[in-house]
Specification:
This protein has about 425 residues and is mostly helical. The longest helix is centred in the first third of the chain and has 26 residues. The N and C termini lie far apart (about 45 Å).
């Protein structure tokens, strides 16, 4: 029935919010992979320790469960797409189709960023990405189908096709579920990862011009409250339904408060010292722990088990538009880089003066400070061709292993990454 299809979409959202995906790993692992002069892992879990030390084995538990959960979400999306004939209401059908396409698209995007060398590692991007799944697995015969990994270029083509198709189907507003502008925001991320600055700018501009979102006056407001005007899309959580309070969850790993957090991710002084004197982001987003491992510095972005998890904020769209306008040159689209950057850094919000005539370096620096510990850092390292410690942006050690169970089950059709 139509209710069954609706329930399947809600089930897919539930998978996205689990600890293997946006509930923890897609944020945490980006920080751990780029931890040099940024953060320090002090926990006892070996899967995360291997990620932070860049010595993952082919059976790394975190790499395995993220892969499995992402393909579970993709499969649920494919089941929805193959069941739309049960939905007779046109508006509902379009909405559910758009949501399923969005989920399938962003999961392939997250997978290819972690399990393949980055965009640009080869001239034609014909290096191995991940398996593209556009058909639902419903029975053993489907499950036994052995599909090889597609190239990175082919995966990005599929991601862009899904997101653009989702935009055409999704409504302008969909409550706390994804809508057209959430899809545009992810589209901006995808294009930026490809260094396609023209299309990244256009997608970010579409989100800004929608008028749906605006920056909060206080830097902590988006993390201390739920579904504020600054947040484009959040994982919805509460006391009863969240990613976890002991072995998963952002507060579990990032917080050091009485009764809250394992205090496993510690901020290092080299990064904190990048914030200018008086910057409210430094004083409001970081604190000296009072729970486990007291006396060290932790991120106050993640300090409650029941808080919503902002996946993408309007701040990122302003930063993307400012960056791409500077890279493209000529007459800016939408507004000047100075005005876009002033949305992020201004005397009221950050206690810092507006930067007059900002350079590209200024925008990238503010991006690093503003979006810290929100799951973007390792991907910025890769797209900007930087390094983390001794590892360059295109080092094989910055690529997750394909779960060995997948390689074995496919009888080698799915090829393992180098070094594993």
């Amino acid at each position: 029935t139509a209710d069954d299809v609706e329930g399947a979409v809600i089930g897919a959202y539930s998978i996205l919010g689990g600890g293997a995906l946006y509930g923890t790993n897609l944020f945490l692992n980006a920080d751990l992979q780029g931890a040099d002069n940024y953060a320090s892992w002090r926990g006892t879990f070996q899967g995360q320790r291997q990620i932070a030390l860049h010595n993952m084995t082919r059976d790394n538990a975190e790499a395995s469960r993220t892969w499995i959960a992402a393909y579970r979400a993709i499969n649920m999306a494919n089941i929805v797409l193959e069941s739309l004939n049960f939905v007779t209401d046109a508006a509902q059908k379009n909405k559910l189709e758009g949501e399923a396409l969005f989920i399938r698209g962003i999961m392939h995007f997250e997978l290819v960023r972690y399990y393949g060398l980055p965009w640009g590692a080869t001239a034609a991007n014909d290096h191995l990405g991940v398996v593209i799944r556009t058909k639902a697995t419903k029975n053993e015969t489907d499950a036994f189908e052995k599909i090889p990994r597609s190239t990175v270029a082919q995966v990005y083509t599929q991601v862009l096709a899904d997101l653009n198709a989702a935009i055409a189907k999704l409504p302008d507003d969909n409550g706390t579920r994804v809508d057209k502008y959430v899809a545009y925001a992810f589209l901006a991320r995808v294009y930026l990862q490809q260094s396609d600055y023209v299309n990244a700018r256009a997608a970010a501009h579409a989100v800004i011009q929608s008028g749906k979102y605006k920056m909060n006056a206080a830097v902590r407001a988006v993390f201390d409250n739920k579904n504020t005007s600054e947040s484009i899309w959040e994982i919805q959580q509460n006391d009863q339904n969240n990613a976890g309070t002991s072995n998963d969850g952002m507060a579990t790993f990032y917080a050091s408060l009485p009764g809250i957090g394992r205090a496993d991710v510690r901020m290092v002084a080299a990064f904190l010292n990048l914030y200018p004197a008086g910057d409210l982001r430094r004083s409001e987003w970081y604190y000296v722990g009072t729970g486990l491992r007291p006396g060290n510095t932790y991120s106050s972005k993640w300090r409650s088990f029941s808080m919503n998890l902002p996946v993408i904020r309007i701040a990122e769209m302003y930063l993307i538009r400012a960056e791409t306008n500077l890279r493209i040159g000529g007459a800016p689209l939408g507004d000047t880089p100075q005005n876009d950057l002033a949305q992020i850094r201004n005397p009221i919000r950050t206690n810092l003066p507006i930067i007059v005539n900002p350079t590209l370096a200024d925008v990238l620096f503010e991006r690093r400070l503003e979006l810290a510990f929100e799951g973007l850092w390792i991907h910025d390292i890769k797209r900007l061709r930087l390094s983390t410690g001794a590892y360059a942006w295109n080092d094989n050690r910055l690529v997750f292993p394909i779960p060995q169970r997948e390689v074995d089950a496919s009888e080698g059709i799915i090829v393992q990454n180098p070094g594993y």
